[in-house]
Design a protein that fits this description.
twelve-stranded antiparallel sheet, 10 helices, 12% helix, disordered N terminus
């Protein structure tokens, strides 16, 4: 019990008194207490000096008992990592031993039997420890064990200096929890706060006694949070050497670090053998960059760069750029179109200079004002199709940008790319958007003589949400747009469009909702340049329209309490709605045409719908859990104008949508359009996903359009054994009888490594790839198809 005194310069009594003074005004209390005792002793005729002496002894005993029974030092008062990390000078010590020798005069001594020294979250245990309290140096022997956080060392002998955080471990193993590293060596030296060196090392991340893979080396230099360097390294599988390297580098990263990332490589008919090597540069705490070099034996070297920055929680951005001087073109000569073109368009790709620039930026200006920038400029219509996968490919870029900014990219096969700069300001009941929008038509830009794509430079939207008018029953709102419509070739104009609307919401009987509304539309054009109009002609056009709308709806519901496992309530809601829209027909052919705003077609339409919703309630610890179990909607329209014009088909197809969530493992959704005249489907799309507790999943989608293609797509993941998985996908154009794409792959994974191999065929292009992952070290090979297509599964299993 008395061992702990050797680590303090003051007596336990003085330390306790100082701590008590911080808790209670002891200097004030003691004089009053002793004064009261003196008066009482005199009244009782008792010797005051003896009473005071006895009281002092009792008080000292109580304070010493308080100190040694845990009322004083708390080892967990501050976070620390003791042996491995950081400044621990302010963290108190705790020492236990069966016997302590020395310490009183020189501060040096020996602790014997069940020795435990703890400082912060670092704990040293041994049979015997020679300890210098002034130099803070320990020499431990016999069953030595050190834990620091979740890292563990065990061995026969330890020398350690808490002052400069250096030491030597003999005949033991070091376990680093962060990367699950097991390091065994004849001697391990801690040369600094986060640096180690070792001789005759054995490294693995496998927990088995005979590891599946390991690295043996003559010498190891490792920086915790950086990299490890092994000299004369042998890579072993089941203790059998299979690879030798004079020097081997592997990451031991806690945070982002500058260095090489895992490479990717594969082979395909179009690209040949490809090798992609990224380099990550941690520029500062809030900025970083990644440089890419993708070497393709048939196409050349594609270079890329990505720069990311975070200025604050609401201000961030990313800039990405790729460039390739392609050795192959699709210029129509020979078999170039078959070998290096795509069949989804009728245009060639004669250019060899190929690139893709994309950028997103979010900037908050405060006071509910934001700026958003989106840039997407590509060299040709085939580039994103060609480089859809892999590092900084289309799929990875789209996923990463959507995760960070909540805004995705246009589809990879869309030759018209959206570029936008938007400023948004919000008030209570109003919103303002100032936007410059540029549609980059890749084909027109590179191959056409005339580009008539409409650009909005700029557009100003100012809207008022539906709000009451002066406390009356009436509500009002409006939408307005001011735009300069620019074309490189063709008409250009300034357009102003204002569309206010007045509503009268009513609820007769408390069940039926009735909302009539009327809108007025004013549109003005001023032509900056107008084909076919002389300079002296009137360049101003205007249009006035009105429209009427009547919205009738009613919703009823009931709550049931079924005897279902995990469900204590079911709400069934039924909503009936009928909407009448009327817009008179006006001649608008004399007005310029840029987009749909310039032609408002006459409308005399009744639309009715029927919606069923089922919501379940399940008890949970944090409160009830509500989930939509099913939603079914049917709708149809009746066109009165068609009836007046004696059109034989005034009724639109019946549109239907259904969503079903059956338990946790099955969900279905579908939509269809059915013609009441032909008695046939105009379109039908059905998709379903099934999963189970083992991790198996099956996704199937069937799409049919009467005037479009009919296709089926399936994606499956099967857990054959605890370690072996099969994944595959298949898409076929049923109408043409042609396969669109197909792939199959196998994944084997264990505790410390995994292997993935896949074959893929798309557009008559065969590709083969594989991926080896040594957990804790990184990946070697191509991209993981399993992780791309089953992200939720991947998060749970890797």
């Amino acid at each position: 019990m008395g061992v702990e005194r050797i680590f303090t310069k003051e007596s336990p009594l003085k330390i306790c008194v100082k701590r008590l003074r911080r808790i209670t005004p002891i200097n004030r209390i003691f004089p009053y207490c002793f004064h009261s005792i003196t008066a009482g002793c005199r009244f009782l005729q008792i010797d005051v000096r003896r009473v005071k002496a006895l009281l002092r002894c009792v008080l000292r005993f109580i304070l010493v008992l308080f100190f040694f029974c845990g009322g004083g030092v708390s080892a967990g008062a501050e976070e620390g990592t003791g042996l491995l990390d950081g400044d621990t000078s302010l963290i108190p010590w705790r020492v236990e031993a069966d016997k302590a020798e020395g310490f009183r005069e020189t501060g040096k001594g020996v602790l014997r039997g069940n020795v435990v020294i703890q400082k912060g979250d670092t704990r040293l245990s041994a049979d015997t420890v020679n300890f210098d309290t002034k130099a803070r140096v320990a020499d431990a022997d016999g069953n030595v064990g050190v834990t620091s956080g979740e890292d563990i060392f065990s061995g026969t002998h330890l020398q350690y200096n808490w002052g400069d955080q250096t030491g030597r471990f003999d005949g033991g193993t070091l376990f680093l929890k962060k990367n699950n590293f097991h390091i065994r060596a004849d001697r391990i030296e801690k040369t600094g706060e986060t640096t180690y060196s070792a001789e005759n090392v054995h490294i693995t991340t496998c927990d088995d006694e005979t590891p599946t893979w390991a690295i043996d080396g003559k010498k190891l230099d490792i920086t915790y949070g950086g990299y490890g360097f092994v000299n004369h390294a042998f890579f072993k599988i089941k203790e059998v050497p299979v690879f030798y390297s004079p020097i081997l580098v592997f990451p031991v990263k806690l945070n982002r670090q500058t260095g090489l990332l895992a490479p990717q490589f594969g082979t395909s008919e179009r690209k040949g053998f490809s090798y992609s090597q990224p380099f990550f540069w941690a520029i500062s705490d809030n900025t970083d960059a990644t440089l890419y070099a993708d070497s393709m034996s048939r196409r050349g070297v594609k270079l890329g760069a990505e720069y990311r920055y975070v200025l604050s929680d609401t201000n961030r951005g990313v800039v990405m750029f790729d460039f390739l001087n392609d050795r192959k073109t699709d210029d129509g000569s020979g078999t170039s179109s078959t070998d290096y073109g795509y069949n989804d368009d009728a245009y060639l790709r004669p250019n060899a200079d190929r690139y893709w620039f994309r950028m997103k930026h979010d900037q908050s200006l405060g006071d509910d004002t934001d700026i958003k920038l989106d840039l997407d400029i590509v060299s040709d219509q085939d580039y994103l199709y060609e480089f859809k996968k892999g590092y900084n490919g289309y799929l990875d870029s789209r996923r990463d940008l959507n995760d960070v900014f909540g805004r995705t990219l246009d589809e990879y096969n869309d030759p018209v790319r959206k570029n936008r700069l938007n400023l948004n300001k919000r008030w209570a009941g109003y919103s303002l958007n100032v936007e410059a929008l540029w549609w980059d038509d890749v084909i027109a830009r590179r191959q056409a003589d005339i580009d008539e794509t409409v650009q909005y430079l700029p557009t100003i939207y100012f809207d008022r949400y539906k709000q009451p008018i002066f406390g009356s029953l009436l509500f009002a709102g409006f939408e307005s747009q001011s735009a300069y419509l620019y074309r490189e070739d063709g008409a250009r104009a300034f357009r102003f469009d204002l569309h206010p609307r007045i509503y009268l919401p009513l609820r007769p009987g408390g069940i039926l909702s009735v909302e009539p509304s009327v809108g007025f539309r004013q549109t003005l054009w001023h032509m900056d340049s107008y084909d076919g109009v002389d300079d002296g002609a009137d360049r101003t056009r205007h249009r006035e329209l009105f429209d009427v709308r009547l919205d009738l709806s009613s919703e009823v519901y009931n709550v049931f309490h079924p005897d279902w496992e995990g469900v204590d309530a079911l709400k069934h809601a039924v909503k009936l709605q009928a909407v009448y829209d009327y817009t008179p027909s006006w001649k608008q052919e004399e007005n310029p045409y840029f987009d749909g705003t310039d032609r408002i077609e006459g409308e005399n339409l009744i639309t009715y719908s029927f919606i069923n919703t089922f919501i379940t309630r399940s008890p949970a610890k944090d409160g009830p859990d509500y989930r939509q179990a099913a939603r079914i909607e049917l709708s149809q329209s009746y066109d009165i104008n068609k009836e007046k014009d004696e059109d034989p088909e005034p009724f639109s197809p019946i549109e239907g949508e259904i969503q079903l969530n059956i338990g946790k493992w099955l969900s279905l959704q579908g939509d269809a359009g059915w013609s009441v005249y032909s008695g046939d489907f105009i379109s039908r799309n059905v998709a379903g996903i099934f999963s189970d507790s083992r991790g198996d999943s099956l996704y199937v989608q069937h799409r049919y359009g009467k005037s479009l293609r009919e296709s089926i797509y399936a994606d499956v993941l099967l857990n054959l054994t605890q370690r072996v998985w099969i994944f595959s996908d298949y898409e076929r154009n049923i109408k043409d009888g042609l396969d669109i794409s197909s792939s199959i792959g196998v994944l084997y994974r264990s505790q410390c490594w995994s292997f993935e191999v896949q074959y893929e065929k798309e557009d008559e292009n065969d590709s083969f790839g594989f991926l080896i992952t040594l957990h804790g070290l990184g990946d070697v090979g191509g991209s993981s198809r399993a992780r791309e297509r089953f992200p939720n599964w991947a998060k749970n299993t890797f």
